[in-house]
Design brief:
With 116 residues, this protein is of the alpha+beta class. It has one domain (2-115): GTP cyclohydrolase I, C-terminal domain/NADPH-dependent 7-cyano-7-deazaguanine reductase, N-terminal domain (GTP Cyclohydrolase I, domain 2). 34% of the residues lie in helices and 35% in strands. It contains four helices and four strands, in the order βαβαααββ. A four-stranded antiparallel sheet has the order 1-2-3-4. α3 runs antiparallel to α4 (71-85). The longest helix is centred in the last third of the chain and has 15 residues, at 71-85. The two termini are 16 Å apart.
């Protein structure tokens, strides 16, 4: 078993509960951890046997383009899409952070982490 981590994927998107957030947009960061059997690609040295990191990024980018009011909704969609589109996944954990959320004070970020 292996753990693949892709950290700090940055997106500008239009998610948020408030209408202004869906117009102005904000910066979001995504971190993902994927548990999968890495024995075959470790021996074959062939990307066709591995979880392709670029494919993971494209799946996340596609989901980040769909407007949502809640971070939880986006994270669930990302997890579902990863399991739907990539075979051999054992577990996925996604952390989604909204930078500088409009909460009436100076806040670096708010994050939601979910796994399946």
């Amino acid at each position: 078993m292996g753990l693949i981590e892709i950290e700090g994927m940055e997106f500008y998107a239009y998610h948020g509960h408030y209408e202004e957030e869906q117009i102005v947009g904000n910066k979001f960061l995504v971190d993902i951890k994927i548990e999968a059997d890495c024995d075959v690609p470790a021996h074959s040295d062939n990307i066709n046997d591995a979880i392709n990191y670029q494919t993971v990024y494209k799946i996340i980018k596609k989901q980040m383009k769909i407007k949502s009011r809640l971070l939880e909704n986006i994270v669930k969609r990302i997890i579902d899409a990863i399991f739907d589109e990539l075979p051999g996944i054992e577990k996925v954990e996604v952390k989604l952070s909204k930078m500088n959320p409009p909460m009436g004070g100076k806040i670096k970020k708010v994050s939601v982490t979910m796994s399946r």
